[in-house]
Amino acid sequence: MALIAANNLDWQYSKTSICERFKTLHHLSKWTDCTFIVGFDEHYKVINCHKLVLAASSPVFEALFFGLLATSESNRPIRVPDIAPHTFHLMLQYLYEDNVRFANVQEAGCVLYAAKKYLLPHLSSLCVKYLEQNLRTNTLWDILCVAENLNEETLLSSCIKVMCKYSKDVWWDDSEHMSIGTLRRFINEPLIDTCEKKLLEIILSWSENECHLQNVPATPANIRAVIDKFNLLSKIRLLTLSSVELEEVLNKVNIFRDEEVKLIKEHIEQQESLGNTPEISEKAQSLVSLLPWDFCPVIEKRRTYVFSSKKCARAVLSRKNTWTYGGSMFSVVSSSSKTLVTGFEVYTRLASQIDFVINRGQPNTYKEQLVLCIKNEADEEINQTKYENIVEYNSSQIINLSKPVCFQPKIKYTVKIELPSGQYPLNSLSKSAFTKLTHFSFSDCARYRDRYFGDHEVRDAGFVSGILHSI
């Protein structure tokens, strides 16, 4: 005990920088001259600080301790009911140590509120930078809430960019609710990777939530009243829907009047009957003029967002002397977090003796033809991709899905690949593959018909060597 006390007395000797000295001063809580009661109700905590350190960084603390707000009562404990003790400690970590470390976006959002309250612009910038760097589909709603509540325009623009970049299936959550300003900005974007039908579904879901917030029954009439109040239909390109899409929307929630449905249907049928001909704009325009004033008259579809995918490769544990001669390759895949899967990497065929003969001893490439389908846990097919390409023998190839598929966290998806006749290698691959933000789990199986032994099944024989995704 005496040794510890001695070390505390001589702590200045070992500290070579002012940051280290202030850090230790904060941890030891020595010579404090102000007290904060931080938190609300029984969750409060008493925190002691140094007026000089706080005032040197924040004009709010300067005014409170040494400025116009300083009074004889300034030495009394200062209550801070709107900030959690842990958040206050993180802010003090920055003030004393010139450094702050966040564990998640929730912490960064809370510290951003504290930084704005006490006018700490550099700390605010650090919080915004952390939130932008960690903005993904699975953190979108938390960060959007921070951006809206704290009026962070840069952060809000980044959130809208993520909404535009990914399909509604990837990021939309019916239990969440964005502001009307954010919704208007989003649906007004010309470049969105979400079809018009799903944009209409977003408006319907948002308006239904708005009814619940106003304690109004979410009837079709009330939903339409909310939509009309904010003039949301003026941003949805209803005339670009197909007849099938329109029927799906009407069967779900019909907020349109009979005459509106008749005009929209007539326009869509006219468009579909004409196809992509020069007459389409002239004949369609006469019907557009009959639509209500608050309907969007645009008949061109929005441009889709082009985004890049990253490959998550599986490690090769051992190269088996195992092959399949056509048949079906299965891989059950799951992800630790929500992610948008855009394709798979698989092996290519091995050259046969006939290939050597046909290509005069130098077989280089061949025409690949595969069929890939993905099923969910309910055994429902959610994607089918027919793949054709000229590829190299004994190599790998990327199968880009016909449409990206959103993998929900910890849900198992069965990837089935139908191979044509030919010799394909099977390897022992790792059952997990990791990226910075998620990890994938795999379980492999190959089924094919052997010419001598009939149907054959090989477990743990990997054919899918990687997965392409975008979070």
TrEMBL record:
GO terms for biological process: neurogenesis. Gene3D superfamilies: Potassium Channel Kv1.1, Chain A (3.30.710.10). GO terms for cellular component: cytosol. It holds the Pfam family BTB. It comes from the Eukaryota. InterPro entries: BTB/POZ_dom (IPR000210), SKP1/BTB/POZ_sf (IPR011333). Residues 32-104 form the BTB domain. PANTHER family: AXUNDEAD, ISOFORM F, BTB/POZ DOMAIN-CONTAINING. This is BTB domain-containing protein. The lineage of its organism: Eukaryota, Metazoa, Ecdysozoa, Arthropoda, Hexapoda.
